[in-house]
Structure formats: structure tokens, C-alpha cells
Amino acid sequence: MSNTIIDTNFKFPKQTSLYKGKVREVYNINDEQLVMIATDRLSAFDVVMPKGIPFKGQILNQIATKMMAATEDIVPNWLTATPDPNVAVGHLCTPFKVEMVIRGYMSGHAAREYKAGKRMLCGVPMPEGMKENDAFPEPIITPATKAEMGDHDEDISREDILKKGIVSEADYLILEDYTRKLFQRGSEIAASRGLILVDTKYEFGKTKDGTIVLIDEIHTPDSSRYFYAEGYQERQDNGEAQKQLSKEFVRQWLISNGFQGLEGQTVPEMTDAYITSVSERYIELYENITGEPFEKANVANIQERIETNVLAYLEA
């Protein structure tokens, strides 16, 4: 499992800063463009797992790249180039401090809240009488923001976003409009692959000229949940779990091993066999979501490969 990229510390020409997120590392080049490297780190319940997943970064980066290209006619995005399988380069943006989460079905976090008796999520009502994985009458937007302390995502309502001045009303209306358009397009792409786009999140930023653009990832298995369309209704009618394509399988494995990211809990050991199975599952996700076979990049020396490709791009 040594041929994974867990951490980087490159020194690129005109580099001004480096930001390390849970999965991605972002290099600021001359306050003009960003070099975003998708590592093989695996995050669940806002905790980074101790071992990397082979090819995960490549898979996320390439799905996001394809989905950016498939939606750029309806929503502008930050991306300008992908000089390496794990790397995206784009415009420097000032991110909005909210994630636009949109849900077509009552799954995951929404289902857990519903089971706890709540009928309101981020200020949006959820109808009575729903079962887990039922479709909402229409998709609901349930934003999240970073907590004051730490890196945990917190639910927030539209009203609170505006009241606290996190986003202006004019900008927020654009974010909502873009979110619905992207989810509609993503749902159409998923349907063409025999999938259902259940829920997802989008992040947006502003370029220096004030244009609102889509940033980060889009429609990847880390940011989205997919069900297989075939047999969906039959499984719902029979009260069976849905067959899904997302990172949820990792979360469920962690839950079954007594871990939900809570204080005092320890991440269970991830054996080489389990890590291999997770990597294979991510490859399955890639091939189902894109409809194309996955081509593994050369990982003999992944750090050197990335550095060489990024330097060649920046020098050109």
C-alpha cells in the first residue's frame, strides 16, 4: 500500500501558500491560480483515516473534471487544466463559507435526523410518513457551514445564512439557482448510467472579477450519494436497503466497528485486504458514474510524477 499519495510539500515557482484540507491540498501560485492535488487520503465523519486508498485521488479528480466539463454550459467553474491524473488547476477564488447540500431523497444525514424525530432540516420541512430512501416531493437544499471550532460541518438554514451575513441575499439566490441546475443535470447524467443521484454538495467561490463559479469537486462518490436505479422501487416496497454507490459503505463499516468520529472513539484497524477492497469499490464507482473503464496511472513514484507534470504545466 506504499504507492499512495498521503501528503505533499512541493515548492512550486511563485508559490505563495499551501492549504491542506481533509483530502485535497491546494497550492496558491502568485495569487492568480490554484493547483489542487487530490490525495489518496480517506475522510469519514470528518476524521482522516490513518491509511490511504490506492487510486482514490485519481478517481475523484477525474470524475470531478469530467463533471465540470459536462456542466460548464449551465454554471461557470474554476477549472482551467488537469496536468496530472491527480491534479486540477484553476482560477484563484474566494470561497463562500457555506456548502450547498441538495437532497432528492431522504438518506444519510437526513434519514438519521428523521429517525430521531425531527421534521425540519436546515429550516426546510420534511413530510410525515416517509421511509428512509424515499424521494422527497421535490429536492430540498440543506446548507452546511464550518463550525466555529474545528473542521466539522454544521447544518444551517437559509435564514441564518442571510441573518448572519455569511452570504448576501443577491449572491445566495444565485447559489440556490446554480445548485438546482447542477443537481438537475447531475440527475440526468446519472439516469443515463442507470443510477439515481440521491444527494450531493456543491461549493462555490468568487473570482477576482466577481464572477460566481463552481469550485472543488462535483458529483464524486465522496461528495455525492448514488443508488442503482434498477430495483430501486422494489427494494423500497420490500423495506430493503438500497444498493448504492458512495462513500457510505465506508461509513457503515466504521459504524459497525464502533466508530462515528465521536470523542473517545478509536478508528478501527484497516487491514491491507480491506484497503484493497475499498480501492476496488472506488474503481467500480468511477466506471459506473462515468460509463468508462478506469485506467490506472503509473504510481511507481507518484510524488515525482505529480511534481514533474505540474512544473511542466506552470513553465509552459
Features:
single chain, about 325 residues, 7-stranded antiparallel β-sheet, 18 strands, globular
Give an account of the 3D structure.
32% of the residues lie in helices and 26% in strands. It has helices at 56-71, 108-115, 158-163, 169-192, 232-237, 248-256, 272-290, 302-315, and strands at residues 15-20, 24-29, 33-38, 43-44, 47-48, 79-84, 87-91, 94-95, 100-105, 120-121, 124-125, 135-141, 144-146, 153-155, 195-206, 212-215, 224-228, 244-245. Strand 1 and strand 2 form a beta hairpin. The longest helix has 24 residues, at 169-192. The chain is globular and about 60 Å long.
Determine the strand fraction and express it as a percent band: 25-35%
> From the alpha-carbon coordinates, what is the Rg to the nearest angstrom?
19 Å
Helix content: 25-40%
Overall spatial form: globular
Q: Roughly how many Å apart are the termini?
A: 34 Å
Topology record:
Layout: E1 15-20, E2 24-29, E3 33-38, E4 43-44, E5 47-48, H1 56-71, E6 79-84, E7 87-91, E8 94-95, E9 100-105, H2 108-115, E10 120-121, E11 124-125, E12 135-141, E13 144-146, E14 153-155, H3 158-163, H4 169-192, E15 195-206, E16 212-215, E17 224-228, H5 232-237, E18 244-245, H6 248-256, H7 272-290, H8 302-315
Antiparallel strand pairs: 1-2, 2-3, 3-7, 4-5, 6-7, 8-15, 9-12, 9-15, 10-11, 13-14, 15-16, 15-17, 17-18
Concise summary:
The protein is α+β, with helices and mostly antiparallel strands and 316 residues long.
